[in-house]
Amino acid sequence: MTEEMTSKERVLAALNLKEPDRVPVGSFATHVAGKIVGISVKDYATDGEKMAIGQRALFEKGGFDILFPFSHVGMIAEGWGSKVRYMDADVSPLISEYAVKSADEWKEVEPFDPEEVAGVQVLVKAIGHLKEWLDERAFVLGVMFCPMTSATHACSLSNVLKQVKRNPDLLSIGLETITESLIREAKALEEAGADGIFLAVTRATREILTRKQYEDIARKWDEKLLRKIHVPVILHVCGTDPLLDMLVDFPSVKGINWWDRGTNWSLSDAKVKFGDRTCLAGGIDQTRTILMGSPKDVEEEAKDAIEQAGKGGGFILFSGCDLPIATSLENIQAVSIAAKRYGTYPL
Ligand SMILES: [Zn+2]
Prior knowledge:
Blueprint: H1 7-15, H2 31-35, H3 41-46, H4 48-60, E1 66-67, H5 74-77, E2 83-85, E3 94-97, H6 118-133, E4 139-145, H7 147-154, H8 157-166, H9 168-192, E5 196-200, H10 211-227, E6 233-237, H11 244-247, E7 253-258, H12 267-274, E8 279-284, H13 289-292, H14 295-309, E9 315-319, H15 329-342
Parallel strand pairs: 1-4, 4-5, 5-6, 6-7, 7-8, 8-9
Antiparallel strand pairs: 2-3
Helix pairs in contact: 4-6, 6-9, 7-9, 9-10, 14-15
This protein binds zinc ion.
């Protein structure tokens, strides 16, 4: 057996397509991190120190190697003028008003200064605390959304999809402004100490954009942003028909995460097709097993994922999308228990 690694070493080995000591563990884990330490959704979303306390619990109690300081989709869109509503209940804050209401208004949107966007500052603070408190042992992600996804946070998805067909030139003006802002955000997160960037390319899926639409309108902005990122990137693709084959070879991308339990791309298929080019992150179904199953069920699912994609390294156990806030700590712990039990190298 390989000598025990720190979480950060373990994740970096997997991202570099090597065998770590064991399969690393993480998740798209936002408000559930606050919930397990009794922090309210609003406090978690607006206070970087509280966000870091929640994420630290995922490392110390949950056994996660990768930490995911992030709150909700609107926290960056506020920088372009969208408004967010915080509710008292255990639900993620929602965008209550979009900054851009018609294609013409893209001309008026300005790139933001990360120091003036509260949402970026929350992440910067959370990353800083985690790096300091955990003494560089955990792998801390800077979490971002790609330009096209961000456009659908500055303007409604239905409106943006109309613009894709009717006003692509005006939409492109918006995407350029957004990309400029996101390049600045990435720099701020890297300077805060992020070990990697988790870039959510959530609209690159065929039920939202066709291959041609993604190619013609969205792709160049993703590439422009990725070329400016200097740490390893894990791409996240939402949806049921993700365009994984168009994304795996992007610059800076070292890993890819998608809902393998709910799409046509199983982990074992992706391992054959891309396993020698990018690290695969998945296996945990955020919609079923970890939410509704027992710890034993979660362990079984994790074991199956390791069998599908763990061989030879280049694999991380990860949820397919955002873990529900109601996910229990016992089920979170079951993922790292399975990684130790079934994912110790050599497999
Ligand atoms: Zn997703």
